[in-house]
UniProtKB/TrEMBL annotation, chain A:
Membrane-crossing segments per the record: 21-41, 85-105, 112-129, 135-155, 218-235, 241-262
UniProt-annotated location(s): Cell membrane
Membrane topology listed for this record: Multi-pass membrane protein
GO molecular function: ABC-type phosphonate transporter activity
Protein's recorded name: Phosphonate transport system permease protein
Keywords for this protein: Cell membrane, Membrane, Transmembrane, Transmembrane helix, Transport
Biological source species: Dongia mobilis
Protein's UniProt keywords contain Zinc: no
Entry GO CC: plasma membrane
PROSITE patterns assigned to the protein according to its UniProt record, in alphabetical order: ABC_TM1 (PS50928)
Gene3D superfamilies: MetI-like
UniProtKB/TrEMBL annotation, chain B:
Family: Belongs to the binding-protein-dependent transport system permease family.
Keywords in alphabetical order: Cell membrane, Membrane, Transmembrane, Transmembrane helix, Transport
Compartments, as annotated in UniProt: Cell membrane
Record-level GO cellular component terms: plasma membrane
PROSITE patterns: ABC_TM1 (PS50928)
Transmembrane segment boundaries: 26-46, 91-113, 134-163, 246-264
Name used for this protein in its record: Phosphonate transport system permease protein
Biological source species: Dongia mobilis
Major localization listed first in the record, in broad terms: membrane
Start and end residues of each ABC transmembrane type-1 domain: 83-265
Membrane topology reported for the UniProt record: Multi-pass membrane protein
GO MF annotations in UniProt: ABC-type phosphonate transporter activity
Length: 271, 273
């Protein structure tokens, strides 16, 4: 216990002098890093634009209001597309993610040395690349449209579902697996009767959670040409039709709120 | 002998596996049927231009080749500029975001703040969380002009919603007895926060901050697509130019940085706790 002295009397202190020094050095380093990064980042900033920003904000705000309510008729079909993109993309992601998760989980993988690292790399790369970037690539490869969006959402979902699912598989109760193994069950039967029932609630929760995130993401994928609400957003931004932009934002906001509510309810019911 | 006769007279029974998730059979069939109808409808509305997809396969193959044999050198100038912008944007926005979100997080904790402050802070969090980064970036780029400054503001704004919410929940979950003990010494509000709350939430706050640093880097790669600077702008350009080997290199760099930061942040988190 570190003890300091004040006026000759021993006094309790929280940290040793060395720890205090290290803490100060750490904070100083952090502040220095921040200042340095700030300098580098703002090197090319045109401050005139920044000073002008409040005026711009007021200007854009005045153009955005009121939203063009009638525009909603043209948004219903893109909204349906967006929902389909999210749902079908989630489905594709699930189909691809389940085998990857079983390969990545330490207790179900057929080979720890070879297949597990590959599965983990697939999960990490899918997680680090945002779906907008996947969509950017896929639009260039398979052309603009819903399919690119669906595949982009699917590829992005592999990492999320795969990671959470393989963690759930690794945390299963081993005694149930042993009990089923003791009856002389084959590998497939062990999977079916011992492992799947244990991870099924987690799996459904993860899928619904990802579906909710995917709805958010699919709403903007159209910005790079993958269909849905984002396509309308891009078109409206290009012609500076701010009242339409506001309307699209409201529709996106409404969809996100509803899907979040649905997903919370479903997850509550399952777990 | 009687027992054997008893067993023989009983009708043979088979064990039937109970349903896994949905107990009621009616509800199960309704859900399955609804899902099937939806699937047919949804797949029906997806229009696919198969000849275009077929044409694109060759490009897809070139992209995979570019990913396997990435080209770091020929566009290195653009890549390094984008990377520096992304990294500095990430650090500054995370720091500023944390500085703003700590007071908001404290204000949004029901056990610390009076009702009206609580409502204001929760409203700020809700606004910040309900819009994706890209949408915020579009608006801020329109106001502040192109470049990393708009990106910095976007990421800071997004950090506030994320961090304040989790911090507030953490403060609401603290061990009340410690706060009670500090209150019993006659401590004021600041002393309560400093001696009872802060030591309990600090490890988690550090963990969340590192996690957010990670997210901010990943997001910084995205908001460049709408003009907010960073590596995303470089990636967008290279895909527009069909330079898939450079695009592959950029994506590998992003994956590498995310892997390193995830690995080191999990270590730091273990060390802090």
């Amino acid at each position: 216990m570190p003890v300091g002295k004040i006026a000759g009397q021993p006094v309790w202190q929280h940290r040793t002098p060395r720890a205090r020094l290290a803490l100060w050095a750490g904070w100083l380093g952090l502040v220095a890093l921040f200042v340095y990064c700030w300098q580098v980042m703002t090197e090319t900033t045109i401050w005139a634009f920044v000073h002008d920003a409040p005026a711009q904000a007021v200007d854009i705000g005045s153009r955005m209001l009121p939203p063009r309510w009638g525009y909603i008729e043209k948004l219903l079909l893109p909204l349906w597309d967006t929902l389909n993109m999210a749902t079908l993309g989630t489905l594709l992601g699930v189909i691809l993610a389940v085998p990857v998760a079983f390969l990545a989980a330490r207790n179900t993988t057929p080979s720890v040395m070879l297949l597990r690292p590959i599965a983990l790399f697939i999960i990490v790369s899918s997680r680090s690349i945002n779906s907008l970037i996947w969509a950017l690539l896929l639009v260039a490869i398979i052309g603009p449209g819903l399919l690119a969006g669906i595949v982009a959402i699917g590829l992005r979902s592999i990492g999320f579902i795969g990671k959470l699912l393989y963690e759930a598989i690794e945390e299963i109760d081993v005694s149930q697996v042993e009990a089923v193994t003791a009856t002389g069950a084959s590998r497939g039967q062990i999977m079916d009767y011992a492992i799947v029932p244990q991870i099924l609630p987690a799996f459904c929760g993860i899928t619904v959670f990802r579906w909710d995130i995917n709805i958010r993401e699919s709403a903007i994928l159209g910005l790079v040409g993958a269909g849905g609400l984002g396509l309308q957003l891009q078109a409206s931004l290009n012609v500076l039709a701010w009242p339409q932009v506001t309307m699209i934002f409201l529709v996106i906001l409404g969809t996100v709120v509803v899907s979040e509510w649905v997903s919370a309810k479903v997850r509550q019911a399952i777990t | 002998m009687t027992s054997a006769a008893n067993t023989a007279s009983l009708p043979r029974r088979h064990w039937k596996r109970p349903p896994l998730l949905i107990k009621s059979p009616l509800l199960r069939w309704i859900i399955y049927g609804g899902a099937l109808v939806y699937l047919v409808l949804a797949v029906g509305t997806v229009e696919v231009n198969w000849s275009r997809v077929y044409e694109g396969l060759e490009r897809g193959w070139r992209f995979i080749q570019g990913f396997l044999v990435p080209d770091f050198t020929s566009r290195w100038r653009d890549i390094s500029v984008g990377l520096v912008e992304s990294l500095t944007m990430t650090v500054t926005s995370t720091v500023v975001g944390i500085l703003i979100s700590v007071p908001i997080g404290i204000g949004a904790a029901r056990n610390l703040a009076p009702a009206w402050i609580y409502l204001v802070c929760r409203a700020i969090i809700a606004v910040s969380r309900s819009f994706q980064e890209v949408i915020i970036a579009i608006l801020l780029v329109a106001m502040f002009g192109f470049g990393p400054f708009a990106g910095f503001l976007t990421l800071s704004f997004a950090t506030i919603g994320f961090l304040s919410k989790l911090l507030a929940e953490d403060i609401e979950d603290i061990d009340e007895t410690q706060a009670e003990a500090i209150r019993a010494t006659g401590a004021g509000w600041w002393q309560l926060v400093n001696y009872a709350i802060q030591p309990q939430v600090m490890p988690r706050l550090i963990g969340l901050s590192l996690y957010r640093l990670d997210i901010n880097f990943r997001e910084s790669a995205v908001i460049g697509i709408v003009g907010a600077g960073g590596i995303g702008a470089t990636l967008n350009t290279s895909i527009d130019r069909y330079e898939y080997d450079s695009a592959g290199a950029i994506m590998l760099i992003i994956i590498g940085i995310v892997m390193v930061s995830e690995y080191s942040s999990s270590h730091i988190r273990k060390w802090v706790q």
